[in-house]
Amino acid sequence: MFRLQGSKVLAVDMTGDAVKAKNGSMVAYDGQMAFKKLTGGGEGLRGMVTRRLTGEQMTLMEVRGQGTCWFADRASEINLVTLQGDKLYVESSNLLATDGGLRTGTTFTGLRGASQGNGLFTTTIEGHGQAAIMSDGPAVVLRVSAQYPLTVDPGAYIAHQGNLRQSFQSGVTFRTLLGEGGGEAFQMRFEGDGLVYVQPSERNTIAGDV
Fold it and tell me: Rounded distance, CA 182 to CA 198, Å?
């Protein structure tokens, strides 16, 4: 069971089950725990090869045991997401931990990955269970509906879930609209029905001033 202690520490109560977490994110545990590094971060050979080819970095460890294990990473804010058979798309650098029964993999994202410098693939999580994602500052969860599509700065994007269509707009950013910045860059547009998670801080990008 995932629960937060404060906003920056994840506590996981375990009864012999397993959790997948970012390698090195364990900060304390009680009881009996076993740790195993997982190669590649995704499911199977395809996940391993995809990440090596694209530079998508996600090194996970499996934690199994009896007791409580605590996780944190660079004092990042932690947000819990409950999946009920649906799929979560999340940047690998923003993923902290998932229930051991959830499936992780990769999916092609096209221009967004190139604009962020994170490769052309992003991490997917699907099944039934909980995932913990991180943000630089408290995350904001924004609802997308048919009447209200959403445009997001790719530097602030963390994750999304639901029945959403994703598209990209190049050559204009929030800063260029204000007369600042320059060069080619991208905005992300979401349409459909779902949730988008954004952070109040922008990661560095390589495709212009976003």
Answer: 23
Backbone angles phi and psi of 130, in degrees to 5: -115, 150
The tokens of 75 are what? Answer: 């004092």
Residue 118's contacts (CB-CB under 8 Å, 6 or more residues apart) are 55, 56, 91, 92, 93
Residue 119 — very low, low, confident or very high, per pLDDT cuts 50/70/90? very low
Torsion-angle region of residue 93: left (phi > 0), alpha (psi -120 to 50) or beta? alpha
**What does pTM read for this prediction?**
0.81
Residues near 182 by Cβ (< 8 Å), separated by ≥ 6? 176, 208, 209
What region does 16 belong to: left with phi over 0, alpha with psi -120 to 50, or beta? left
Q: What integer best gives the mean pLDDT of the chain? A: 81
- Taking the chain, what is the end-to-end CA distance rounded to the nearest angstrom? 37
Provide the strand spans (E) within 23-138.
Answer: 26-38, 60-71, 77-90, 95-99, 103-108, 121-135
Q: What are residue 10's DSSP bridge partners?
A: 4, 71
